[in-house]
Design a protein that fits this description.
With 77 residues, the protein is α+β, with helices and mostly antiparallel strands. 38% of the residues lie in helices and 12% in strands. The longest helix is centred in the C-terminal third of the chain and has 12 residues.
């Protein structure tokens, strides 16, 4: 999960989180989500998933309310 310059949280799947974050920073091959906002920091990551379970987990995280996402990354109440 990436915290953005507007305070929003972006969730995605990658086999190489650092490389993917760099792609988002440079704008080359970055997600459209980052047009108009800038990725600031990786605030949460999970490992131990295969592609299928990672996609299911991504969908589950995206379905969470903001407060639940903040609690997941340790910044919520």
């Amino acid at each position: 999960m990436i915290r953005c310059s507007d305070g929003s949280l972006y969730t995605g799947v990658s086999t190489d989180v650092e490389r993917r974050f760099a792609e988002h920073l440079t704008g080359k091959r970055g997600a459209r989500y980052f047009q108009g906002r800038r990725p600031e920091a990786i605030v949460y990551r999970e490992s131990g998933h295969d592609r299928s379970s990672a996609l299911r987990r991504e969908a589950a995280i995206k379905a969470l309310r903001r407060e639940q996402k903040l609690a997941l990354i340790g910044q919520g109440s």
